[in-house]
Structures are given as structure tokens and as C-alpha cells.
Amino acid sequence: MSLPSIDSFLSALQQQLGDAAVQTGAAVEARFHTDWSGQPPVAPLALVRPRSTEEVAAVLRLCHAHRIAVVPQGGLTGLAGGAVPVQGCVALSLERMNAMEAVDARTGLVTVQAGVTLQAVQEAAVAAGMVFGVDLGARGSCQIGGNVSTNAGGNGVLQHGMMREQVLGLEVVLADGTVLPMLRPMLKNNTGYDLKQFFIGAEGTLGVITRVLLRLRPMPQAKATALVAVPHFDAALAVLQRMQGRFGNSVAAFELMWDSFVQASIQWQKLQAPLAERHPLLALIDVDGKDEASLRDAVEEALGEAMEAGEVADAVIAQSHTQARTLWKLREAPAELNTQMHPPINFDVSLPQADIGRFAQAIQADFDARWPGHHTLFFGHVGDGNLHVSTDGATVRGECDAVEAALYAQVERFHGSVSAEHGIGLHKKPFLHASRTPQELAAMRAIKAALDPLNLMNPGKVFDL
Amino acid sequence: MSLPSIDSFLSALQQQLGDAAVQTGAAVEARFHTDWSGQPPVAPLALVRPRSTEEVAAVLRLCHAHRIAVVPQGGLTGLAGGAVPVQGCVALSLERMNAMEAVDARTGLVTVQAGVTLQAVQEAAVAAGMVFGVDLGARGSCQIGGNVSTNAGGNGVLQHGMMREQVLGLEVVLADGTVLPMLRPMLKNNTGYDLKQFFIGAEGTLGVITRVLLRLRPMPQAKATALVAVPHFDAALAVLQRMQGRFGNSVAAFELMWDSFVQASIQWQKLQAPLAERHPLLALIDVDGKDEASLRDAVEEALGEAMEAGEVADAVIAQSHTQARTLWKLREAPAELNTQMHPPINFDVSLPQADIGRFAQAIQADFDARWPGHHTLFFGHVGDGNLHVSTDGATVRGECDAVEAALYAQVERFHGSVSAEHGIGLHKKPFLHASRTPQELAAMRAIKAALDPLNLMNPGKVFDL
């Protein structure tokens, strides 16, 4: 495109939205150049910060007419590079679309603009006497639109499902500016294709999410937290099955930590060891219920039975909220990864649940052989089949690419997923083939071409055309 | 297409699958000509009953080469006409693909061919010590592939969600015979578009579902059933909110029956009245728990509080399984609709939950004015926002079309859905516009054209191109 044409595009943009909502060139703040993924920063042609769906539609119509790519941006906390600008694009930040439009406590529904933070939704839910089903570390910065676009996971998946299962409706603007108002507040709505599903997890490649209708969940009246030492992975699965058999969907969390992770966490965060001895694995278990005391008794009884069955070697049940927080502190080591590893090589993979133990063993053996002395931590939302792995780049001669290739090769061998919850973005694009067949990728490209024939929406993310 | 070409197509079909798997012309049994919707029967050009995914792919490749339409058929229990053959089509029945391939009790996963009945999955789940999340009246005949294709609802939605939320993976054959093996057994799998979502609820218009990976749910150890009389709709919602606030996701059913329905049910099924007096509304409530006696006590306590708050006028809690079944019998009147109404005009609509009471009143008033003496029943899965309405055609001068138009006009006015759980098929195609904007329909057509460019998959269902 010739420069005069770009100039006329930019002035049309400023005319449409007003100067305050448009920044161009060097005036675009650096924070919009990349996200938490560590991908190299890219300056967009312009940054727009619309305040309404109508303004988003106007921007997209204009970009469509001028064949300018659009990269939607939420809280920029993504770990896969999905919101990093591409050369010559308009970065479309939703941060000014942060209205909490409606909270209906009676029917447990919330309607928000896409730029509202996750934490704001969580707080609105609690104020209405309910809870929101998704929680993750970036809650204060990440935005609902980004959570939907990446189908965010986090700590509540075991009980409430991923972000997809919290979404009752979406308003989306397509590449040509068409608005799809899929916001009818019904749990059940079988009227043709459930279009909103197409945009959940699409990482902004099919349209811009502008408004979201979310369902809330009942607030549990009591919660029990236990830290449980198990001798091996199959015992951990047996404990999970036992707890779910007894407490059903009230098992709110089942996080597993391998000993290497536990030791790193204790050291990095200067914690006291939670149990007298070291064990191969520790499970953090949350259970919801009606009454603290009787719930603790029931959890103690279930864990006692598990101990008799040889599934549990030791356990502690929190006697207070403070003690529960102390136990959960052990799980918060990931916040230290960036300062303690040089650099951390982080993985977010999913595996058939029964195979997670064997997968971790295979990785450990593989890395032991190739990088003796490597420092690798295993932990994750094992109740969901989701394992996180972090390897210290300094302990593998900085061979980050080789570590990635080795791990994803094992994921492919175990028929796992190279991305459980973080998405593909730019970062995992080279490995997508390990979890998807060429036929599946062709079907995705056909969908992309159908909804965005000019390939203007977040081009080059997830897959190349 | 000329006749010689059809002959060569049919002989190629028979050569591919063997004579036993192919019937043509008058040899096709009448049961494959229509479904439970009452749509006029249509004889297909041929009926094929493949035994494997490979055979399905071979059929679709052949149909694609000869430009022959394909109508997938499951148990033919659909109420919207989605599986009724179209002129000149191949009807593709999945009934021979009824293998229960794998049941993994430890991780709660089941893999089945698409032709397995819902009941067979339910029984396999129970044999593995778990339950399957979807249940509906046609369980003995309907097939899992059809349940997925229509995103079936039923009695378990409040607790476990629709069929969509039970599906972890799908194998689908596209119109050109391409097989998409989206069967990785992971709860979390953010690797590009979640393609399987596109086929759930697509009513066979995007491909043929051949295998399904399902998740099971923990089996509740105890269940309490209560029949609760409430004075008005808002009180019913208050009771639901109260029960969910106390029992969370353990509230397994919340079915509401208006008095007209209750009286018809008592009369048709020759039941004893369950309560001493008549009430405007009765709610059937199931709650899961750990222990029958303490659960009944807790439900009684909660209902006692609701009574003090004026939300409940009378209630009975089942003291045995037999009594629970007797209470649930009241909800089974719909099985009598076809013999008791002449004909029944049935509706399956969804509304913003808070508006269901006002919607029912509006319909009643509307019909009272236009068809004095009409007999109309209101009932439904109100916990899910799903209302069923049945009007006796004999009491509205047989003006079935006018009754439909009047009801769907109110659905549009209340921003509801013309199909909560039955789908669109042929039957509701004229009313789809009441729940979807032209822009949404255009996006659906674009998706359809992307995955089935020759419009061979179940053409003319859901929408016209």
C-alpha cells in the first residue's frame, strides 16, 4: 500500500473515533507492542481504543475497506503471543469497553463489555451472592474478552469447566464490520449452529468479541482444603476418584505437585515444609460443602479410608482459612519462575488422565539422558488432565528449542495436546501439527476463510493460511 | 441426473458395501421414511447401513462424486424432522455402528460408535459405577450420534449441561469423505478451533458423526425427591435459588408443572392427586447427596424455610424410591399427548428464566382471546429456562399454523428461542428468523458452504441456502 493511502486510512480512523481513541506510529505506548509471552515486540501501525460496539464495527469496516489487518488486544497477559501486533496492523484494544452492564442475581447472569477484567466479574459475582467459575493468576489484568478468545482454564475447571462453559452469549464483530448479537440469555438454545462456540478459543482470528453474557455459579457455604501425600501417580488418581465418588461435583480442585516442584516452591518462597517427610507427590484438594466442621469431618473420613487403602501416605486438613491459604501457597511457585529460572521453558500440555504419571516419567528419563543435571518441575490441574512442566534453561545449556521439541514429541506419542489452556498464538504454532491432523487443520482453514475471507483478523496466529 | 447414472451409482454403492448393507427403492423399509416429528414420509433413493467409519467415508466419497445428497439417520426419534429423507437422497443409518468400544471407569470416559443407544451408554455408565449426564424419554431408541447432532437436552441439564457438555471428542466424516478424528480424551485442549463444537447441534448438515468420546459423572450416593406447591412463578424461582444456594450443583432437577398440566396428567394417567389441594404450580425437585436420611432432613429444613418465607404453600418429600417414582409419574403426561390431543401442537421454547411466568400468562391470555375453550398445558425444565407448551388442536378449530405463529411471535417478543432442545430440522425452519438475525443466518450459511460446498449433507434442514 502506498503511503498516501495509509495516511488517508489513518485520518479516516481519527475522524471516525476522534483523536483521543487513536494513536499512531511512535505515539503507541510500548505496552501494546507485546504480551506476557515474551514474544518480540512489534509496533502496530495504529492503536485504537473504541468505547462501543458501534465504534469497533466502524474500525473493522474501515480496516476491511483498506485491507488493514486487525489484532484484538485484551489485558495482554496471554502466554502464547496471540495478541502481539503484526507489521502494519491496527491493534484494537478493548480496555475502554469495561462496562459491567448488568448483574442479575436472581437468575445468575452477568452481561459485560469485553474489556472488563476477570477480577471485576469475580467481585460482581460475590457481591450478588454467587461466584464466577473461572479463576487464574492474571485475574487483575486479564480481560473477559481475552479469556473467552483463549477459552481460559485455571483453577475452577474441575468443577465448572473452562471459560466456554461459563459463556451463555457473545456479541462479536466480524472482519467486515458485521455485528453478530448472540446474546440471548438462555442455557438451552438449539436454533441452528451455536455460532458463539466458533469464536470461543479462536484467539481473535474470526472476529472481535465485544460483549459477553456469563453465567454465575452458586456460592459454596463452606470449603475444606487438604494437602495429601501420595506414593505414586496411580494412587493420586485413585484418591481423586474416591473423592469424586463421595463428594461428586463438590470436589473443587485437585492439583498435583511432584516433589521437585514442592522443594523448589519451599526454597523460592521460603516456606516451611508442610509435612514431616518428603513424598513423591502432593495433592492439594478443595471440597465444597454446607458446613465447615462437618465437611472437614467427612473429608477426614474419606482420607482415612484412602490411607487404609494405601493410596495416601500422609495428609493435613486445614483447620482455618489461614491454614488453607498457607497450604495453597505451596502451589504459587509459578509466580517465581521468571526470576528463579534463566529462562524458564514452560509447558502447558494435556494428556489422557491415566497417562500423566507415565508421561512425566518419560520426560524425566528423556531429559536425564540428554541434559544431566537439568532442573525440571512437574505440576498441574491433574483433575482436568492438564500438566504444567517448567525446565530451567540454564540447566539445559540454553537449548530451549531442543527441550521444546523433545517434550512435544512425547506429547504426540501419548496422543496429548500441546496446549491445554494457554492457546496456540504465535508461540505454539510450530507444534500444532503434533495435536491436529492435516485434515483438521484444513477444516480450520476453511472456517477461517468463510468468516474472514481477506485474512484480516489477527493474521498469522494459530495457523498460517 | 439421468437414470443410467443413478444405476451406476447404486451398483457402485452395492459393490462398496455389499448387498446386505444397501437397500434401494421400494425395498427400503418404511421406518426409514420419517421420524417421530410427524413430517410426511419420503422414500430415499437408497438406504445404507455401514458398519465402520471407513464404510461411511466410502459412501460419502461416492455420493460426493455423484452429487447425491446424504441424510444421516440415528434412532429417528427426533421431533423436528431433521432425519427425514429428501427426494433422491441416500439415507445413511448408523444403526449397525453400535459398538461400545471402551469404558474406562478410572477416568470416567466412554468411547462409542454413533449408533449406540442412549440407554446402552447409561447402563454402561452405571456398570462402571458412574452415571451419564443426559437422559430423555426416547432413551431406548435414540442414538448417541443423533443426541450429539441435535445437542440433546432432557432431564439432566440443570446439573450436567446439554449433550455438548458431555462430549470430549468426536469422529466426523465430512461431505467429501474426509475423516476428522477429534477424539483425544482431554478435558482441556486449546489447539486451534475446537472443531468438534461445530458439529454438535448441526443436525447432520456439516458431516456424519461416526464415533463419540463421552465423559461420565460421579454417581450420587443418595437422592431426595420433593413435590412442592408454589403460589406463583416468582416464588418458584425463589425456591430454585434457595435450593441452589444451599445444595449448589447437587440440585439435579427442577421441573415446573402448571395446574392445567397437573390436572391433565392425573386424568390421563389415572393418578391420585399428590397433594390435598390444587395449586397454581407444582415443582418437582431432585437433590443429590451422600446419605438418604440426612439429605431428606436437609431438604425438609430448606423447604420449611421456604414455606415460612411464603414461597411454598405445601410440599411432600418422598420417603422411598417407590414414592419418588410416584411423584415423578406426574411429569410423564407428555407420553400421552399423541393419544389425548387431536393433534397435539407441541412447543419446546426457551426464555430468559425470569420471564417464563409472564410468557406463559401472555400465551394463555392470547389463546383465551382467540380460541376460547382451548386446552393448553405448560410444563418444563424451568431450571434451564426451557418451557414446553402443548395445545390440543381439536380445541383451536384445528388452526395449528395460527397457534404456532401466535406462540412464536410471543417468543420473539420475549427474546426467547424457538427451539430449546429439539432443534430446527424441517419443522421449525419457518420460525428460525424469530431467534436469529439475518447476520447470524448469513454466518451459518458461510460455515455450511465452507464445510459442505456442494450442499450434500442433509440439505434443506435447519435453513435453506
From TrEMBL, chains A, B:
Keyword Protein biosynthesis: no
Cofactors (names): FAD
InterPro entries tied to this protein: FAD-bd_oxidored_4_C, FAD-bd_PCMH, FAD-bd_PCMH-like_sf, FAD-bd_PCMH_sub1, FAD-bd_PCMH_sub2, FAD-linked_Oxase-like_C, FAD-oxidored/transferase_4, Oxid_FAD_bind_N
GO molecular function terms attached to this record: FAD binding; oxidoreductase activity
Domain FAD-binding PCMH-type per the UniProt entry, residue ranges: 40-219
Keywords: FAD, Flavoprotein, Oxidoreductase
GO BP field: respiratory electron transport chain
Pfam families hit by this protein: FAD-oxidase_C (PF02913), FAD_binding_4 (PF01565)
PANTHER family reported for this sequence: D-2-HYDROXYGLUTARATE DEHYDROGENASE, MITOCHONDRIAL
Record family assignment: Belongs to the FAD-binding oxidoreductase/transferase type 4 family.
Protein name: FAD-binding oxidoreductase
Species this protein is from: Comamonas terrigena
